[in-house]
Amino acid sequence: MKNVINKALLNTIMRPLLISGLLSVSALSHGQVQAANASAPQTLDRIIAIVDDDVILASEYRERYESVKANFSNNQQALPDDKELQRQILDQLVVESIQLQMAYRAGVRISDEQLNETLARIAQQNRLSVPQFKAMLEKEGRSYTAVREQIRKDLLIQRVQSGNVSRRIQISDQEIENYLNSEEGKKLTAPEYRFLHALIPLASDASQAQEIKAQEHAHALAQQVRKGTDFSKAITDGGPFNINSGDLGWRKLDDLPGFLTDAATSLSKGEVADPIRSASGFHIVQLLSKRGDGEIIPQTQARHILLKPSAIRDDKATEAEIKALRQRILNGEDFAELAREYSEDIGSASEGGDLSWTSPGQLVPEFQQAMDSTDINGVSPAFRSQYGWHILQVLDRRDKDVTEDMRRRIAGNHLHDRKFKDELQIWLQQIRDEAYVDYK
C-alpha cells in the first residue's frame, strides 16, 4: 500500500491547497505580513489578528504556513512568491474565522455521526479503512484529531456558504431552456448507457470454420443470459475461446464504440443484443441500465404526521401520542386536519401533511420502507426515524417518465454551480469588508 494520499483527499482535508481560490484582501500591508512571519521562531504564542469576537494565533498561522509548503512540495508544485503566500494564508485564516463565527451564531452544528460518516467516506475514496487512514496520517506526522477537527470546521463553512450564497442565486425557467438548447447543454444532458460486454476474439486471418464456431458460441452465450443466467457467470464458460469481458460503465452515446450505438438506442433495460461482428471478433452485450432516456420510475403520493421527542415529552410519550393519533384516524377522523393541528413538520403541516409525489431514495430509509409497505389509502403503523415518530397515509402510486425532469434538474444544478462560484467570491469579499479585523 502506498503511503501517499491522493490530491482529492488533500484538497478535502487540507484547506491550504486551495490558496489560489482565496480572497485577496488589500488591507493587509507588507509590514503586517512581515510581523506575522517574524513571529514564526517565537516559543510563546501570541495573537496576530483580532477578527470580530475571535482571534488568530501565531501558532495557527505557523501550522497553516508549514502545511501549505509541505503540500506544494508533496505535489511537486512550485511555491508562489513567499510574501504573497504569507499574505494569502493570513487572509484565509481571517475569512475562515468570520464564517465559523457566523456558523456558531446561527447554531449550525456538525454532529459526531456526520463527522464520522465524512471521515469514512474520505477513507473509502482512498481505498482505506478509517484505522488505516488514521495510521497513515500519524505516520506522516499529522494529528488525526487535528485533521478531524479541521474537517468539522470545513463542513461548518460549507453549510454557511451554501445557506448564504445559494439564496442569492436565482435561475429562471428561460435560463434552463436556453441552456438545454445549447450545444453544451445537449451534451451534458444526453442519455447515458451502461453495458456489460464480452468479446470472443478472432484473428484477422481466421478461417470460415473458425468464424462459424465463434459465432455459434456467441449465440449460445447470449441465449444463456436471455434465459436468466448472470452475464458474468455465462461468460466464464469460454469454451475454446479466451473471452475478455467487463462492465463498460456509464457512457454517453458519443463515447460508446461505434458497434454499440444501435444496441444502445434499440435495447430495453436488461436485454441482450444478438452477437455483433466487428474486426476484433464477436461482441456479446447486455444493456444493464440507462438514464436520461425514457426514465420511468415508481412514485408515491403520501402525507404524514411527525411528532418530535423533547425535554417536555420523552421518546416513549411521543410514541404513545402518535399511536393515539393513528387510532383517531382509524376511527374516522380526518388525517389532514389532525396533521394541521399536531404535526411538527413545519414544511408539510400547513398542507395537511402532504408530501406530494416522491421518488425512491428521496426520503429517509425508514420512511421509504413504511411507505412501500402501506396500501393505498392505508395508514402505516407508527415508526421512528431520525426526525421523530411518524404515521403516514399513502394516497396514490404511479409510474412516471422523469426524463425531462431529470434533464431540467441537471441543467439547473449546472447553472447553479456555475453561478455559485462567482457569487461565493462576491459574498466572501462582502463579509470580509463588514468584519472588524485588527492585525497585531
UniProtKB/TrEMBL annotation:
One GO BP: protein folding
UniProt signal peptide: 1-35
Source organism per UniProt: Dasania phycosphaerae
Residue ranges annotated for the PpiC domain, each copy included: 190-289, 297-396
Entry's free-text remark on domains: The PPIase activity resides only in the second parvulin domain. The N-terminal region and the C-terminal tail are necessary and sufficient for the chaperone activity of SurA. The PPIase activity is dispensable for SurA to function as a chaperone. The N-terminal region and the C-terminal tail are also required for porin recognition.
A GO molecular-function annotation: peptide binding
InterPro entries per UniProt: OMP_Chaperone_SurA (IPR050280), PPIase_dom_sf (IPR046357), PPIase_PpiC (IPR000297), PPIase_PpiC_CS (IPR023058), PPIase_SurA (IPR023034), SurA_N (IPR015391), Trigger_fact/SurA_dom_sf (IPR027304)
Function: Chaperone involved in the correct folding and assembly of outer membrane proteins. Recognizes specific patterns of aromatic residues and the orientation of their side chains, which are found more frequently in integral outer membrane proteins. May act in both early periplasmic and late outer membrane-associated steps of protein maturation.
Assigned keywords, A-Z: Chaperone, Isomerase, Periplasm, Repeat, Rotamase, Signal
E.C. number: 5.2.1.8
Substrates-to-products reaction catalysed: [protein]-peptidylproline (omega=180) = [protein]-peptidylproline (omega=0)
Chief localisation class: periplasm
Organism superkingdom: Bacteria
A GO CC annotation given for this chain: outer membrane-bounded periplasmic space
Name this protein carries in UniProt: Chaperone SurA
Subcellular location: Periplasm
Pfam families: Rotamase (PF00639), SurA_N (PF09312)
